[in-house]
Amino acid sequence: MHVYKNFINGAWVESVAEKTVPNINPANTDDVIGHVKLSTREETRAAVDAAAAAFKMWRSTPAPTRGKIVARAARLMEDHKEELSQLLTREEGKTLAESRGELQRSINVADFCAGESRRMNGETIPSELPLNFAYTVKQPIGVVACITPWNFPVAIPVWKIAPALVAGNTVVFKPASNTPGTAVRIVEIFEEAGIPKGVLNLILGSGSTVGDEILSHPAVRAVSFTGSNEVGIRLYEQVSRRGCKAQCEMGGKNPVVVLADADMDLAAESTAQGAFGSTGQRCTATSRVIVEESVADEFVERLRKKAEAMILGDGSKPGVHMGPSVDESQFKTVLHYINAGKEDGAKLVCGGGQPEGEEFAKGFFVQPTIFDHVKPDMRIAREEIFGPVLSVLRVKDFEQAMEYANDCEYGLSSSIFSNDANYIYRFIDEIETGMTHVNSPTTGGEAHIPFGGIKATGIGEREQGSTALDFYTEIKVVYVDYTGRKREGNLY
Ligand code: NAP
Predict the structure, then answer these.
(1) Burial 301-314 (b: 16+ CB within 10 A, else e)
(2) Domain 3-250+457-477, CATH 3.40.605.10 — does that match?
(3) Ligand 1 within 6 A of 423 CB?
(4) Given this model, what pLDDT does residue 1 score?
(5) What residues does each domain of the chain span?
(6) pLDDT digits over 454-486, tens only?
């Protein structure tokens, strides 16, 4: 039995905990990849203490030297790209092509952050006073906790750990309990890249014990969290009470608006890709499509054909377009929402349950599912499902489309399909999301461009891009008076 270990103060140590949970391949539940021990509070404190002890040394290591380690980690990820992609697919279920894409994103982010290590610039600011020099410097915060979800188990940890390290913080990394294998490999890669002991620590275990202990530990000065809204909001309340910084990237219910003049095939293709890619388990997945009534029948018919052409299966097999849900709990949630759609009176267009066949018997597979004539107050129009379920809402015009699109607690991503510049720019102006796309899917983002949402999706600074280091640094303002004597006159 393979048991994953914690990485504390530069050493791989097995938890003393007795309770373990299996790491299961969601495409084939007979395939047990390893076992996670649910670490104790004491072990969690040891991980935080190790990070706290290493901080002084790491903060005084020059930023470009820190960046070199991150750059070496990027090269190692490149060398191990195929092995990591295979493990990611086996553990999380997405297709190999999607896993390779995630690995490339992680490499790009690490490269970008390594470059930023040479650009941790402050500002020089002209003073109101003569013989006075004012400037700012960016400084690290201390121990940063990175708490991550299972849906991008390589990219999200890398896009938190890399900027945290480059900025001079030490890190305690707590990954999702159902993707421990990739978490261990990421830390092994940083270890091989030369990260000094204590600077990066991995602690495996439950959110309620390990997560809670991290949040309560006074040495943890900042928490970067990605996950559900339910956990994120509680986490924010808990840490902000003791003055700890928090950055929470949470759920989405991302809309696509399709206007009557749109290229229908492009709109249908992109919507299907956004809704069913990664089995709908992207925070930026398309969940609602709001379409003008005059073209709705044609659009839905095209969408149905795209959905029905998708090949479901084990993501490691060639030709498969869509893998399973990540685990039994997520699988049941998706089936629950399909049921809710039926109960609330939406019209099922295709899918609607588990696929039939021997090859699906041991996995958490759900068919790509489309509901038409969905009303804005139905559960499938309002709540995050995180599975391959798409709701079609019909509207009379652009105004109503905007009303429906913004009638949502979340605000992560969105998209419009149209060729009318006036409507496109009004959409960009009025849509309440942190990211938006024109004539392309709601999913996707680039390593050097800020990423994140508004409303119930996001709290705190944006991740990645020009804003990547903002959360992980504090600005110190410096005034240097070089008069050499007491100043005269009115000073404030
Ligand atoms: P989750 O259940 O909220 O878990 C996220 C992380 O928080 C896991 O490591 C989890 O540990 C931990 N956690 C749970 N309870 C905790 C507690 N009380 N204290 C501290 N940590 C705790 O989310 P998920 O199911 O893994 O991920 C899916 C969600 O992530 C979706 O809502 C999706 O939209 C969101 N997401 C958002 C973005 C974005 O950028 N906006 C990106 C990707 C995903 P355990 O695994 O041990 O429970």
Answers:
(1) ebbbebbeebebbb
(2) yes
(3) no
(4) 79
(5) 3-250+457-477, 254-438
(6) 999 999 999 999 999 999 999 999 999 999 999
